[in-house]
Amino acid sequence: MRVVVAPDKFKGSLTGAEAAAAIAAGVREIFADAEIVTLPVADGGEGTVAAAVAAGFEEHTTTVAGPTGVDHQAVFALRGATAVVELAAASGLDALPAGPDPMGATSRGTGDAIRAALDAGARTIVLGVGGSASTDGGAGMLVGLGARLLDASGTVLPDGGAALARLACVDLSGLDPRIVTTSFTLAADVDNPLLGDRGAAAVFGPQKGADEAQVVELDAALAQFVEVLDRVAGTDCAGLAGQPGAGAAGGVGFAALALLGARRRSGFQVVAELVGLHAAIAGADAVVTGEGSLDEQTLGGKAPAGVAAAAIAAGIPAHAVCGRSLLDDDARAAAGFASVLALTDLEPDPEVCMREAAVLAREAGRTIAQHLAENVGATIGTSTRTKELTS
């Protein structure tokens, strides 16, 4: 019996590694002699570095500027000359010291983290974006890498997207020269452009605390950034601003495309390659994945849907453990889950679910394994669906 346990994080309660360990412990209660492979996954956002570390990358800690400019510790992962830098760790919402700062928050810490990875010997960098606190078009990231943003009087602009409205000059002479010889991958699932009704400010600004008037102000400031950068960057910044993914992470996607020469790829697919997901799944009898909430966003490219698709392609049943499930039976079947078991099926009180997530995830793993054992002759190692799990 070989089971691969590959969940994403349960936000607010369990990391991907903790969820994998708990589910695996439950499976082992039923299949004591099973080969259980734990392989935490992510989709390019929070948890991407942790997934890489669990797969054998070395964790490095560095000091970076937080979203409000206050220094804090962030981690990146390194294996050989390949580094994984996670924007959420350096410049994410969870790194805010207080409440949201939609107009002043910066991505500068992400540039600091990239520079630290370069110092550590990285020449291939995966930039996982998601959970950004800022809407600065990646201007702060460029500052962290040595650029200077100046107003008409030659004064350096303060951090944040709002300040870009006064941008008159971008000085790229101090930009880290190692960027030219480094390969960058933008791990991003969102396909939004930088500007307009589907842009970074309009779609994601409200999630970072921006009101209607601030969204309009930020979008205009980002347009000013594109116009000024277009004059000095040597690339078609105006065209790149309209590319899918340019609006990712408050516009960090745009700066990565325009100045780092990044290539955008699906965040989950990048992580799947980094951790060796497809090789791990090959020959398994069952796969268990999951995350905090299974919902419509899950179906739009989140990690559990990706794991399920990989399992289906290999002819292996995929099961999901989650904190809660908002998917109806049709959506669950379309996603390819043979069964879904939510922690709220085991404990209806959400607060208890959050507090006792590890215990409940273990129970969920045991329950799934029990159903697998009951159907072992008919389903294990085939594409036949297992018996549905109910609360």
Can you put this structure into words, describing what you see?
- This protein has about 400 residues and is α/β, with parallel strands linked by helices.
- The chain folds into 2 domains: about 1-40 and about 285-380, Rossmann fold, CATH 3.40.50.10350; about 50-265, Glycerate kinase, domain 2 (Alpha-Beta Complex).
- The protein has 18 helices and 13 strands.
- It has helices at about 15-30, 50-55, 85-90, 110-120, 140-145, 200-205, 210-230, 235-240, 250-260, 265-275, 275-280, 295-300, 305-315, 330-335, 345, 350-355, 355-375, 375-380; strands spanning about 1-5, 35-40, 60-65, 70-80, 80-85, 125-130, 150, 170, 185, 265, 285-295, 320-325, 335-340.
- A 6-stranded mixed beta sheet has the order 3-4-5-6-9-10, sandwiched between helices.
- A hairpin with a 2-residue loop joins strand 4 (about 70-80) and strand 5 (about 80-85).
- Helix 1 crosses helix 17.
- The two termini are about 25 Å apart.
- Mean pLDDT is about 95; it is low at about 375-390.
- Keywords: Kinase, Transferase.
- Belongs to the glycerate kinase type-1 family.
Could you write a compact summary of the structure shown?
The chain is an alpha/beta fold.
Overall shape: it is elongated
Q: Indicate the proportion of strand residues.
A: 15-25%
What's the CATH H-level superfamily name of the largest domain? Answer: Glycerate kinase, domain 2
**Straight-line N-to-C gap:** 26 Å
CATH topology annotation of the largest domain: Glycerate kinase, domain 2
Rounded mean pLDDT score:
93
Q: What structural class do helix, strand and pairing data support?
A: alpha/beta
Side by side, the strands of the main sheet go: 3-4-5-6-9-10
Report the uncertain regions: 377-391
**Rg from Cα:** 22 Å
Count of spatially separate domains: 2
The CATH architecture category of the largest domain equals Alpha-Beta Complex
Largest sheet: 6 strands, mixed
Number of β-strand runs: 13
CATH class of the largest domain: Alpha Beta
Number of helices, where a helix is a run of at least 4 consecutive DSSP H or I residues: 18
Estimated helix fraction = 25-40%
Keywords: Kinase, Transferase
Protein name: Glycerate kinase
Organism: Zhihengliuella halotolerans
Pfam family, one: Gly_kinase
